[in-house]
Amino acid sequence: MRPSARPLVVTFLELPATVDGRLHGPQSRDVYSLFRLPARSADLLAAIAKRAGHGNAVALTPALRKGGQLSAEDWQRLRASDVVGISVITRTAPPSYEAARLIRAANPRATIVFGGPHTSALPEEALEFGDIVVMREGDHTLVEVLDRLAESPERPPLSGIKGIAYNDGGQVVVAPPRPFLTSAELDALPFPVFPQYVLKRITHQTVCTSRGCPYGCEYCSVIQNFGRGYRCMSEDRTMELLRHHLAQSRAPIFFADDNFTANRTHTKSLLERCLSEGLRLPAWSCQSRVEAAFDDELLDLMVKTDFSTIMVGFESVNNETLRLWHKSSSLEKNMEAVQRFHAKGISIHGMFVLGSEADTVETIDQTIAFAKRMKLDTAQFFAITPLPGPPLTRKLEKQGCILTRAWHLYDAQHVVVKPARMTALELQSGIMRAFREFYSPWEGVKRLFARAPQRIENCVIRFLGRRLVRRVAKETLPHQRGLERLNEWIGRVDALYASYKESLKELGTKIESSRADLSKALDRGRADLAERKARVVASFEAHVKSLRESLSTLGESYHPFCQRFLDELYARFCMEAEAVLVPA
């Protein structure tokens, strides 16, 4: 902060996802609810703000409080804040926007700054509820924004700051992007310090040592938010980071890097350093790709440092899906990877995404069979979800396959896309069935008597997972009921289209037979058939109008999808009707 600037009261807020998208709604649950993790951004941003001279910076993360709600003291802090920074992922957008609206009403002078993947992709949407959006990596951008606000809280000079969007006299200004941080700049970031209420509640710590991903999975938003360049902290700084976290807590560590083993040489060197310096890690886990299984030296070092679970993005057992998503993998490679991990005594959390344009109901069955047959220790079965930004989302938008923009449903447990080779209802039902079958008590008992690695813990997780699956099924039931009504409505539309298409076919047959008659008779016949065609089209149009009116029986969030569905169907029918009377 510049010497002339006045102190700011800065509050960073990271909210949990809720079942109904309301700020005060019940927290939603997923497979990760078996563990309690600290927030990934709010506490780091508070540390960055403090080091930049904005000493009165605090992070609020109510997900780790009982009930997951903001307390009276939290609201008192928000009402007194000059700046409120809200970190947003897609599923937390509705409660985050509601919080911004309430903060604005209680504290009109506060500047509301959004950040995170969702608002980076949709800054115009976020600016309906706030003043500034910090886009992509905000570590350096944030400091510039706070310095400008300290100089002039009411009219901060924001021009010239890269990586932001803001309202300027009713006009949305999107500045040029800021380059991603370099490895040296990652090293220079401060470490987050967590309050006691967080440290007492967490079951695992999160440690992030890198950003970016060198791969290009079509559905993933990592590239848009952190770039394709894989940037690691140096070994020295990573060792400092680990010691810093272990000084706060000895809870198991989850390395939150999108792919902790992307640079295996770096990962091996780091683990060797832990061993040589006697840094004893608690049980730790990480996310990785299957390629890690084929590096025995890496696996041996992981085991020596008390490695617990590898979270592997298998994504699919369908080789065509893997090809479409640019995964550079195969079913056979995935199977061998599982065998290699298990041979080293490493537990596997398998991650699957269902609903590609090549997937069918049989693909869901095959995925369940794979997870059970290969004796995965835990697993998640998620629906393809069109998060704002990735290439697959743009493709699905163009195809008109996105069912709803109710952001709180974008948790991969609610199907929000119409798949190509099954219905949305079949995919929704299949995902719930996959969870139920995998997390069955019987599967846990089988693992217990099979003398599998960590068999007791795995059996307990199966029983806990079964209870969680019941809760998730209850939470997703209203959406499943909505998909049932949507499925019935689409069936009515398809049946209507097929019926009228058959009428056009009959007209076309009569026109073809009339071509053999005399020219004069042909003209009279064509005029009569043209009139009949017009009546068929008019009747179809009346039915389409009735179907539009019937949308009130469906959830409002489905209306844009259904309107587009009818528009495209009507246009296609009119083209086919016109073709019936085209002279041969």
Task: Note the overall shape.
Answer: globular
Under CATH, the homologous superfamily of the largest domain reads: Aldolase class I
Total strand count, please? Answer: 15
Tally of helical runs: 21
- Cα gyration radius (Å): 28 Å
Q: What is the CATH fold-level name of the largest domain?
A: TIM Barrel
Strand order of the largest sheet: 2-1-3-4-5-6-7
Proportion in β-strands:
5-15%
Largest sheet: 7 strands, mixed
CATH architecture of the largest domain, please?
Alpha-Beta Barrel
Intertermini distance = 78 Å
Q: Helix- and strand-based class?
A: alpha/beta
What is the domain total for the residues?
3
What share of the residues lie within helices? 40-55%
Low-confidence stretches: none
What is the CATH class name of the largest domain? Answer: Alpha Beta
The average pLDDT score comes to 91
